[in-house]
Amino acid sequence: MMRPRARGWHPAFLRNACLAAALLALALGPRAAAADDVGPIAAPTAAPEAPPPARGTAWLSVGLLAGGMLADSRLADYQWDTSLRPAFGAQALAGRGPLQLGARLWSAQTTQRIDLPGSTAEPRVRLTTVELVGMGRVATLGSSEILISGEVGRLHLGYHPDQVTIPGPGIPIVAQFSALDEWTGGGGVGIRRGWGSRWSLALGVEHDFFALDTAHRSGAAVVYGRESLGDWNAHLEVARRFQL
Q: Which residues are bridge partners to 203 per DSSP?
């Protein structure tokens, strides 16, 4: 007698189903892993700062100067006021690496007492220099530059008023104070520090030399000569810098 066949899955069908499941798992596996690896979106980062200019970059600066002048004490023999006097000026420099070259205008004012027959005059004396300036960086202190400087130029010495009228019993006498122009030169030290990306602050101290024709009384005679003199100058500079 034949027994009834038990119901179940055919072995060939089961083998084909397992093969299809394995292929599907292989196809979907990388996509699922990529989906699992997705994390939170990274926050945007700030753009990197621009690099500082190269050491050999050329630049130009234009600055204003303010400070003081201390005249040679020997000028007191000619009745000059040799106390510390305010001074001001301007400066333009071009530089590359440690070297700088430019021009400077510097001006200060004092007084000179002049004894005249029957009166005394005290005109103002304006000392103005126009100089060629050279500077060199010799060291750095943090973000500051230590500088040495040298300058040469012309000194203009002018009086105001430039004449005085002396009254007399006859025709009045006019005393004329002539302006003088002399060569001057000197040197000094300074320190400069950047102020932001476009400005700089500098402090300098210099000693300048010049010579003047002089006259003084010795007994009943008037002695004429030429004397070497000098003055001290200190200034603070605020300058605008331009990259070339």
A: 191, 236
> Contact 81/87 with Cβ under 8 angstroms?
no
Per the DSSP assignment, residues forming a β-bridge with 144 are 141, 193
pLDDT per residue as tens digits for the range 180-236: 999 999 999 999 999 988 999 999 999 999 999 987 777 777 788 899 999 999 999
- CATH of the domain spanning 58-243, picked from 3.90.380.10, 3.30.360.10, 2.170.190.11, 2.40.160.20: 2.40.160.20
Phi, psi of 180 (to 5 degrees): -125, 145
Q: In a 10 Å sphere around its CB, with 0-12 CB exposed, 13-18 middle and 19+ buried, how is residue 208 labelled?
A: buried
Collect all residues with Cβ–Cβ distance below 8 Å to 95 and sequence separation of at least 6: 58, 59, 60, 61, 101, 135
CB 107 within 8 A of CB 91: no
* Residue 201 CA: distances (Å) to CA of 6, 38, 49, 100, 239: 103, 53, 23, 15, 7
3-state class (DSSP) for residue 165: strand
In this structure, which amino acid lies at residue 39? G
Is there a contact between 127 and 154 (Cβ–Cβ < 8 Å)?
Answer: no
Per-residue pLDDT of 91-142, as tens digits, reads: 999 999 999 999 999 999 999 988 777 777 889 999 999 999 999 999 999 9
